[in-house]
């Protein structure tokens, strides 16, 4: 157990966009960000991405899971071995299925296996305890977002929007002393983000993504599809709430009759409108929305967000943060909180009934 002081922690994240593994170092005591360290990225190959995609929706014991776990562990071992000086590693793994009110949550990859390879403690399986205790198990970055807001010197509520495969947002009031204090944070998934567009262009055009939203910018959104999308019961549900990557998979069927450009435009507009609908749940309006994740590189998506939001929409780089590595940094930060016995989620971030310190610790040779 780590009781006091700062340490260099190394975090890794492989998101639902299935692009690759982000890794980043943070000097932290689990409450404050003291310094940002080195970063690295290891993309998945086309073959690896195909293996992971085939395992989406699968649970432990399903035949596709073993191959997916091997891809995840190999990729993480390769990128994490480049670092030195980490006291602990935070390993998220690859989410294959997420059903918090049913079978639970499933992230592929063994932290115990990585601990043996890397020779240092690995904190992993961050979500299961929260789900077991009645929470959604997601999103888990809010406590780190709170630390980022304090690091920035923010004095008024603001929001962090992560646009990965699924979108999630954290409303933060940095005037509170800690992220688990009542009123300090509210977090929830907003809806599908990059995943539907990525799946569309992969199937139709053999591309990994709509680069910078260029295809979407050439099309016209279908208002009927968007109206049906926004009528989904998820948007009326009060937060906290979370989504599985494929929960809105019928969106692809809904745009099947559209041209490539119009389909991409419709799916991109859906992602932006979902965020705008989510902002209705903020305890108080925000003047600043900081966007992280791959979606901030999509110029068309960012334009639509600015059009539909009343807040100023900026990439997190405008606040001096690294939007490519924020999620990886978050799991480095959370790993230290686990070692210190500090909570990693609370009722207003995942809907769990009480403060939860999730994650299990695996040490080399054990």
SSE diagram, text form:
Elements: E1 7-14, E2 20-28, E3 33-43, H1 46-55, H2 65-80, E4 88-99, E5 104-108, H3 111-118, E6 122-124, H4 128-132, H5 142-152, E7 158-163, E8 166-172, E9 185-192, H6 194-205, H7 214-217, H8 223-230, H9 233-236, H10 250-254, H11 260-279, E10 288-292, H12 299-308, E11 312-315, H13 326-340, H14 347-350, E12 360-362
Parallel strand pairs: 1-4, 4-6, 7-10, 10-11
Antiparallel strand pairs: 1-2, 2-3, 4-5, 6-12, 7-8, 8-9
Helix pairs in contact: 1-2, 2-3, 6-11, 8-11, 11-12
Observed structural traits:
14 helices, 36% helix, five-stranded mixed β-sheet, 366 residues, seven-stranded mixed β-sheet
The low-pLDDT segments are none
Characterize the biggest β-sheet.
7 strands, mixed
Residue fraction in strands: 15-25%
Distance between the termini: 16 Å
- Sequence of secondary-structure elements: EEEHHEEHEHHEEEHHHHHHEHEHHE
Tell me the number of helical segments per DSSP (H or I, 4 or more residues long): 14
Give the overall shape.
globular
Structural class: alpha/beta
What is the gyration radius calculated from CA atoms?
A: 19 Å
DSSP summary, beta strand count: 12
Mean pLDDT: 95
Helicity, in percent?
Answer: 25-40%
Oligomeric nature of the chains: single chain
What does this structure look like?
The protein is an alpha/beta fold. Helix content is 36%, strand content 22%. The protein has helices at 46-55, 65-80, 111-118, 128-132, 142-152, 194-205, 214-217, 223-230, 233-236, 250-254, 260-279, 299-308, 326-340, 347-350, and strands spanning 7-14, 20-28, 33-43, 88-99, 104-108, 122-124, 158-163, 166-172, 185-192, 288-292, 312-315, 360-362. Helix 2 runs parallel beside helix 3 (111-118). The longest helix has 20 residues, at 260-279. The mean pLDDT is 95.
